[in-house]
């Protein structure tokens, strides 16, 4: 489990575009849990690919990415309080 948080400077049109691209890439690998925070249950090679994609999108002089590695025992490290229920990325997905 990797938690990805990002801050993209949207003061110009290019920033808004980067923000959409970062969110889209994260959605391909995980679940949005806050506006700019995703939980991604990925294998190491998938994380390497995702990280490469994200770092090619952002402007390192204006934007930032943070990766939090929770590992295999992530269920003991995630706690939630508030309106939106958590989800189990290992559970059944119904479309």
Describe the structure.
The chain has about 100 residues and is an alpha+beta fold. The mean pLDDT is about 85. It is globular. α1 runs antiparallel to α2 (about 45-55). The chain contains 2 helices and 4 strands. Strands 2-3-1-4 form a 4-stranded antiparallel sheet, with helices on one face. Helices cover about 35% and strands about 20% of the residues. The chain has one domain (about 1-75): 2-Layer Sandwich (Alpha-Beta Plaits). The protein has helices at about 15-30, 45-55; strands at about 1-5, 30-35, 35-40, 65-70.
Strand order of the largest sheet: 2-3-1-4
Helix content: 25-40%
Low-pLDDT windows of residues: none
How many helical elements?
Answer: 2
The CATH first-level class comes to Alpha Beta
Q: Would you identify the CATH architecture?
A: 2-Layer Sandwich
Task: Supply the number of structural domains.
Answer: 1
Mean pLDDT: 85
How many beta-strand elements? 4
Q: Helix and strand string, N-terminal first?
A: EHEEHE
- Quaternary structure: single chain
Largest pleated sheet: 4 strands, antiparallel
Question: Hey, roughly how much beta strand do the residues contain?
Answer: 15-25%
Shape: globular
Roughly how many Å apart are the termini? 23 Å
Instruction: Determine the structural class based on helices, strands and strand pairing.
Output: alpha+beta
């Amino acid at each position: 489990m990797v938690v990805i948080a990002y801050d993209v400077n949207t003061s110009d049109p290019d920033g808004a575009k980067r923000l959409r691209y970062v969110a889209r890439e994260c959605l391909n690998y995980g679940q949005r849990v806050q506006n700019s925070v995703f939980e991604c249950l990925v294998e190491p090679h998938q994380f390497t690919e995702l990280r490469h994609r994200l770092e090619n999108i952002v402007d390192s002089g204006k934007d930032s990415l943070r990766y939090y590695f929770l590992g295999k025992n992530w269920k003991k490290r995630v706690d939630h309080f508030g309106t939106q229920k958590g989800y189990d990325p290992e559970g059944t997905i119904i479309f």
